[in-house]
Structures are given as C-alpha cells and as structure tokens.
C-alpha cells in the first residue's frame, strides 16, 4: 500500500532539514572547502544521492545553509512586522539591537553565526548571492526604520551611512564572536542588556546628530534660492 502524499512530503522535509543541519554544523567547524559531502551524508544519516536530490549539488547545499543561517539571525518576516508596527521609531531600533545582541551573546554560539562568520571573513562566490537575496531586502527595511528616526529620505546616501554606523557594531559582535582577540573579549564579559543599551543609546545619539546636521544643510541649500528671488524683485518694480 502506498503512503499518503502528505507523509511522503513530511519525510522529505525531515530529510532535507537533517542534511541542512548536518552541513551547517560541519561547514561552521571546518569550512566549505574542507567538508566533503560524504561527511555530511554520514552525519545526517542519509545516502549521498539525497544531497543532490534536495539541493541540486554541493554548491546548492552551501547556499541553502547560508540562507538558513541568515534567516535565523534575522528573519525577514519578523523584521517586516517590527518595522510596520505601531511602536515609536526609537523603540523599533531598540528592539532590533536587542535582538541582534541576544543572538550574538548566546552561549554556546550557534553554527549559524559561525558559518556566516567564515563566509564574511573568507568570502566565496556565494556571498554576493546571499547579499542580493537575503541581506538587501532586510537592509531596505532597516533603512525605512532609520528614515523614520532621522527624516532623511531612504534613497539618500546619508541614510546609507547611518545604516552602516548603526549595524556595523552589531555585525562585529555577530561575526567576531566571544573568542575574537582584543576588546571584543572584554565586551562579551558584560551582560547582554548592558551591551544592547549602550549600542542603542550610542546609535540614537548619532542619528539625532545626523538628523540635525541634515536639516541644517537642507536649509543652507534653500537659502541661495530665496536670496536670489529677493534680489530680483527690486529690479522688476
């Protein structure tokens, strides 16, 4: 008797998840180049053909691992819900930073962070695909949040600089990890709440300063136009 289609689909999804988890753990530990498919199949308790069946090839499996890792770090659905919520823009920023710090400071560190760190520190051709498909849509949402705080249009280069200034410290925590030598090791000895609170206040203060500067520059750009109109009026009288 044939199994129902739904049961077959569930078995396939379970196998795919097993392969994904096994590959993620091994890629995080040894790197993409040093992890053979045979080791992944053995860890996932599947045959080699299952990897190609579910992911097309080895490259497809690695890309799927990166996408899964990025999604668990910051899910697009959760981010979209946060940005679209009724909370104040500053409160949204606080929640975002707290979430990123929470992920970065969890112990033991999840394989998702380690595999992303490897890819960032020693990028392959997969990084550009990851950026286009996963990071860029999330960047658009975060810029929308920062635009609400600063009143700077989302397409203005000034807002891109703001995005970098706000997110870079969080990325340093995520990619560097608690074993990275230098100040990061000291930072990771602090309570996560203290780290998140500092990054939030530092970011909010910087955004406030940029907001004021941007507003002043906008006024300066408008002044010559108004002055030239005032100069032209007496000539026409």
Blueprint of the fold:
Layout (H helix, E strand, L loop, with lengths): L4 H26 L6 H8 L3 H8 L2 H16 L2 H8 L5 H17 L5 H11 L4 H25 L6 H20 L6 H5 L4 H45 L1
Helix pairs in contact: 1-2, 1-3, 1-4, 1-7, 3-4, 4-7, 4-8, 5-8, 6-8, 6-9, 6-11, 8-9, 9-11
Structure description:
80% of the residues lie in helices and 0% in strands. The protein has 237 residues and is mostly helical. The protein has two domains: 7-56, Orthogonal Bundle (Arc Repressor Mutant, subunit A), CATH 1.10.10.60; 74-221, Tetracycline Repressor, domain 2. Helix 4 (58-73) crosses helix 7 (111-121) and helix 9 (157-176) runs antiparallel to helix 11.
Based on the model shown, name its key terms:
237 residues, mainly alpha, Arc Repressor Mutant, subunit A, Tetracycline Repressor, domain 2, 2 domains, 11 helices, elongated
How much of the residues is beta strand, in percent?
A: under 5%
Helix content: over 70%
| CATH architecture assignment name of the largest domain | Orthogonal Bundle
Cα(first) to Cα(last) distance is 98 Å
Give a quick account of the main beta sheet: strands, pairing sense, barrel closure. Answer: none
What is the alpha-carbon Rg in Å?
A: 24 Å
Low-confidence stretches: none
User: What is the ordering of alpha helices and beta strands?
Assistant: HHHHHHHHHHH
What general form does the structure show?
elongated
Would you tell me the structural class of the helices and strands?
A: mainly alpha
Summarize the structure.
The protein has eleven helices and no strands.
């Amino acid at each position: 008797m044939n199994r129902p289609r739904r049961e077959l689909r569930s078995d396939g999804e379970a196998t795919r998840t097993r392969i994904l988890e096994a590959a993620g753990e091994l890629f995080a530990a040894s790197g993409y180049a040093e992890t053979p498919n045979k080791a992944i199949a053995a860890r996932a308790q599947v045959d080699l053909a299952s990897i190609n069946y579910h992911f097309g090839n080895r490259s497809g499996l690695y890309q799927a691992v990166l996408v899964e890792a990025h999604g668990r770090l910051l899910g697009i659905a959760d981010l979209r819900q946060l940005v679209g919520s009724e909370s104040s823009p500053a409160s949204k920023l606080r929640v975002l930073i707290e979430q990123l710090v929470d992920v970065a400071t969890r112990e033991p560190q999840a394989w998702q962070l380690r595999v992303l760190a490897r890819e960032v520190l020693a990028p392959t051709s997969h990084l550009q695909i990851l950026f286009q498909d996963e990071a860029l849509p999330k960047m658009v949402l975060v810029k929308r949040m920062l635009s609400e705080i600063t009143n700077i249009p989302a397409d203005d280069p000034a807002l891109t600089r703001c995005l970098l200034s706000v997110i870079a410290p969080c990325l340093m925590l995520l990619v560097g990890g608690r074993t990275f030598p230098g100040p990061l090791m000291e930072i990771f000895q602090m309570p996560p709440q203290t780290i998140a609170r500092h990054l939030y206040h530092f970011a909010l203060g910087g955004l406030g300063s940029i907001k004021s500067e941007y507003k002043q520059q906008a006024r300066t750009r408008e002044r010559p136009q108004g002055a030239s109109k005032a100069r032209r009026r007496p000539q026409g009288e």
